[in-house]
Amino acid sequence: MNRVLPVSWTESEGRAHVGGLALADIAARFGTPLVVIDQRHLENRLARFRAAFGPATGLTYAGKAFLCGALVRLLARDGWLVDVVSGGELELVRRAGFSMENVILHGNAKSAAELERAIAYGVGRIVIDHPDEVNDLRRAAAAVGAGHRPDLLVRLNVDLTPETHEKVRTVGPGTHFGMSPAVAASVARRIAGAGEWCLAGVHIHAGSQIRDPALFSRVAAAAVDFVAPLRLCFPETVELDLGGGLAAPYRVGEEVPSPRRYAEALMAGLHRSGAEARLGAYRLIVEPGRSVIANAGLTLYTIHARKPLDGAGEALAVDGGLSDNPRPSLYGASYEVLNVSRASGEADRTFRVVGRHCESGDVVAPSAALPGDTEVGDVLAIPGTGAYVFAMSSRYNGVGRPAVVFVRDGAAREVVRRETDDDLLACDLSLGGPGAARGARPVSAAAVRPSRAR
Ligand code: LLP
């Protein structure tokens, strides 16, 4: 269990603790569903990546995995860069006071407004995903009238097939990110030839939840093979941004490479493809997301119902599910489930843990082993939910998104508050919410009365 759980997890007197606090108490204080981040675990991960890669590598956190102001400040403190993929993520990072120079903007369909904002804010790097984007950028720069020009990287789609869920594979057949080496090479020549922008390097992100280190070596080699014949298009130190993708463990016994093994695999690929001799000076950039934050986080739910299922055991229905974690439905993701109110109880019965949403697919865990005396009001923890869970949450069925709490050394800090019904309704202009003043008029009874057939 210990690879799946956050580092500060302990059990005493029948109760599970994280960050020195009983999880049941955290749930009582902040309500559920609740995302709890073990700050010590997170800081350890940031430090392990730094130790594995050394000071020269551009460690870049992939914001799409989970983003909030408190996290961005930790990243800044530890010298990380951040990759953002929308105006919204860019805005969050900026408002957290992060240096725009250390931001990489990704996206396969960036809007003109997003490009303009990125240029106006002075982001350090923009990754070019398609050939027309150079023109989009030129227009954006003219519209902003800014002197600042972000460095550019071209995104490469290489002929590899990572072993992972097909929905999170981003290179090879059937994928739509980046450009083939031939197209990317012509874009690189065009950018370098025009001399308007600095073409800093190349980017490859092969996919997510990748367990095989050899795949990372192949990605590194593909980057070298692409850059070498075009070496003169790039500056003296060319940037090799090899994306993210390192897997996180979700179930007990699941083995994944450590940050060190990941770094060694990338270095081996660079070395074997002759990076030093063929490229001269280069700088490595990596963009891990999941492997940084997944196991620092867990979700707490309260059980609202326990009931027999016709011929299929028993169900525990919790107060969240599909809206705060769509991963089981989307990817068949599988998680451990622990009853933190009865941590010392023997897990002697299996339950189907279901969410509160109106779909048979809203199953948190199809068969969770838990103490037989688990009852309504107990708090369940789902570890490994720090990445792509809160970030992918929705308001389905009118359920607001959960709060997020950072815990460390006996203190809990609410860093994102729970969404209220007012938050949910704020954009509905006909309801007279805060936004209504700008757009909508109150709807009169006459206006909503059905018109009579003439
Ligand atoms: N860089 C780029 C350009 C990416 O698109 C991604 C993830 C990353 C870095 C970070 O990859 P990571 O280290 O987190 O694997 N929603 C899916 C995961 C989608 C990943 C999208 N791109 C899930 O819940 O499994």
Number of DSSP strands?
Answer: 20
* Ends distance: 70 Å
Please, how many helices? 14
- Second rung of CATH, namely the architecture of the largest domain: Alpha-Beta Barrel
**Total individual domains:** 2
Low-confidence stretches: 439-454
Bound molecules: ligand LLP
CATH superfamily of the largest domain: Alanine racemase
Estimated helix fraction = 25-40%
What general outline do the C-alpha atoms trace?
A: globular
Largest sheet descriptor: 9 strands, mixed
CATH class of the largest domain: Alpha Beta
Task: Give the overall average pLDDT.
Answer: 94
Radius of gyration: 24 Å
- Tell me the structural class: alpha/beta
CATH domain topology of the largest domain: TIM Barrel
Explain what you see:
- By secondary structure, the protein is α/β, with parallel strands linked by helices.
- It has 2 domains: 157 residues, Lyase, Ornithine Decarboxylase, Chain A, domain 1 (Beta Barrel), CATH 2.40.37.10; 254 residues, Alanine racemase (TIM Barrel, Alpha-Beta Barrel).
- It is built from 14 helices and 20 strands.
- The strands form 3 sheets. Strands 4, 13, 14, 15, 16, 17, 18, 19 and 20 form a 9-stranded mixed sheet that branches. Strands 5-6-7-8-9-10-11-12 form an 8-stranded parallel β-barrel, surrounded by 5 helices. Strands 1-2-3 form a 3-stranded antiparallel sheet.
- Strand 8, helix 6 and strand 9 form a beta-alpha-beta unit.
- Helix 5 packs across helix 6 and helix 8 packs parallel to helix 9.
- The longest helix has 15 residues.
- It is globular and about 70 Å long.
- The C terminus is likely disordered.
- The protein binds ligand LLP.
- The site of ligand LLP has 22 residues, from helix 11 and helix 12.
